[in-house]
Amino acid sequence: MSFNADNLPCAELEYPNDHSSERFMLLVPKDKDLYDPIRCLQQTIHTMVEYYLTPEQQALFGPLPDAHLRNLSDDAARIASPGPEKTPTSSGSTPAASPPTTASSPSSASEASSSASSSTTATSILSMQSCSSLSSLKDFVPLPTDDAPSFGFPRRLQRAISTHDGPLFLKIMDGINALLRAWKYPFLPDDPFESAPPNCLREMVKTWTDCGIPDAVRLRIIDETYQRTVGPHAHNLNKYESFSSEVYGELLPPFVSEIIRATGLHSDSLLVDLGSGVGNVVLQASLETGCSGYGVEINAAPAKIATTQLEQFRLRCRMWGLKMSDVVLEEGDMLESPQTAMMLAKADVVLVNNKVFKQDLNEAIKAKFLDLKEGAIVVSLKPFVQSSRLSERNIDDISSILRVEERRYRRGYVSWGDGGGTYYLHRVDRAGYANARMNHENSRSSSRSTRSRR
User: Fold this and answer.
1) Of 182, 192, 211, 329, which is most buried by a Cβ count within 10 Å?
2) Are 194 and 119 in the same domain?
3) CA end-to-end span of the chain
4) What is the pTM assigned to this prediction?
């Protein structure tokens, strides 16, 4: 069979929010490092099962087989404790073998204790009209019974992938979607005055108020967004003038999370990113903390991608039943933009990825820090302050109002190298500078008085 853009093989997946679903093209990637929709689909399913379903629903859905397909592995594990996949095309090929791991399903003891309730749940769900499509799976997937109260969907989906059985894969996806729809759209009560039952997947989000959005859910949204908007255009991001201040590079999600912790960003904060690239840092911070964000990027290629990524990120948050805070991404010159000047005056944290900025640009940016409010923090890859000690040489320098702290970042935190490095936190401290200057002036006056008496 031949394929074209109109009849590419696809599988659809329901997302947690109402009327939210996505189609995944079932094509083989040309390179193992390219975007693999089958893997992406499995990771999304596993994230929903782990964080959007109750233990009873998880038991009915089936245990998750392979930890290498779940978000709390590799890069995600580094985010959860203190590179996004690339882009288009897809795979029906067998995923790479992973080391044996313990499945994330309930233990055998807890499974046994919940068998009766799971079986009851299965019976009630199968009686729903909205799940009538599940009956078409009887030739492939045994329906839940008292002895086996689980559909075993993840394991059976993995088997279909391993055996390259496309029809079985699509049949199981039909069953997965039917089950998710049963939880998203429960039947209305017979009593017209009784409140309609809620979408229980979306309701699960309300239970995260104490701990915030789980790291794995946040990373899934970041990865899904990046794969669909940045990855396909990555080649355009490398078109820059060598040894210029416009060389492109990204701070990866683990580094962004570390910066968030180091600066204390929270829901009432404003983050300003000077040279925001495709907007990764601002978008992640907005979802991770609820802070407002503003980014400005002078280069047209990343700025254009940033606009698309912001739209996709908003859409993804809605699909997962979440809300993102206010974010503005502007294409413009950070030194000339009136909006940048306005945002800097209100900023709580300012990020400047100035790893390759030339000295004259760093000096021009430093002049903008005079507008920062007391206590604001500037995060940079190169220091704006050479010494926090006042002397005749630097007492009148703009940077004297900044107290600088040097920190180390780990390997795998930036896109331009595998090793670790250094970054800097500069805190605006005008009161401290005023006291230090007064002490310096008093010391200088005392020294002059001593010399005159001699």
Assistant:
1) 329
2) yes
3) 102
4) 0.78
Tokens of 7: 């009849």
Cβ count within 10 A of residue 345: 13
Structure confidence by residue, pLDDT tens digits, 164-217 = 999 999 999 999 999 999 999 988 888 888 888 899 999 999 999 878 899 999
Q: How many domains does the chain have?
A: 2
CATH of the domain at 364: 3.40.50.150
DSSP secondary-structure letter at 112?
A: H
Give me the chain's average pLDDT, please. 79
Structural domain including 276 reads 230-239+247-439
Best CA proximity match to 413, nearest among 281, 220, 226, 250: 250
Query: What backbone phi and psi angles, to 5 degrees, belong to 314?
Result: -60, -45
- Report the 3 state secondary structure along 136-186: HHCCCCCCCCCCCCCCCHHHHHHHHHHCCCHHHHHHHHHHHHHHHHHHHCC
* Residue pLDDT, tens place only, 105-124: 333 334 334 444 444 545 55
Of the chain, the percentage scoring pLDDT greater than 90 comes to: 53
- 149, 60 in Cβ contact below 8 A? yes
Element (H, E) at 364: helix 359-368
Query: In the beta sheet, which residues pair with residue 270?
Result: 292
Could you tell me if residue 454 is inside a domain?
Answer: no
